[in-house]
Request: fold
Amino acid sequence: MHNIVKERWLSVSDKRLKEAIDTLKESGVRITPQRHAVLEYLLNALVHPTADEIYKALEGKFPNMSVATVYNNLRVLKEIGLVRELTYGDSSSRFDCNTEEHYHIICDECGKIVDFHYPPLDEVESLAEQVTGFDVSHHRMEIYGTCEDCQGVETQKH
Ligand SMILES: [Zn+2]
Ligand SMILES: [Zn+2]
Reply:
């Protein structure tokens, strides 16, 4: 990654970390060092990590922390709306702290999930409501393909 991009991105996530901490404080949730670390890791993660990945990334810093602690922290963060859980059938959940409306593109090769922005498809929701009589709560749309990194691997192989 180019340095300029990285620095800009870091300052944005610092701001988001501050905002997230404020939200925690307002919700009366105790900010433990581990909770802080989980949140910070999620905000800095460009991919959408699993609880296991978060655990592995933080276990060096918190030797007494268990995977259950990570799950527990993620549940708390989810309850106050700072984190979204993305479930994908049998594979384990991934966690997303981008709480703005956005869509995901997923790599078929490595499973990486990347955010992209597109105007929310509200019309589809209202159409679905009209034709089915459902009370629509949300929708989920995912795009699949091969990420740039994996495309590179393909090229090297040939
Ligand atoms: Zn990939
Ligand atoms: Zn996302």
About this structure: The longest strand covers residues 91-96. Helices lie at 3-26, 33-44, 51-58, 67-79, 122-132, 148-157. The chain has two domains: 3-96, 103-157.
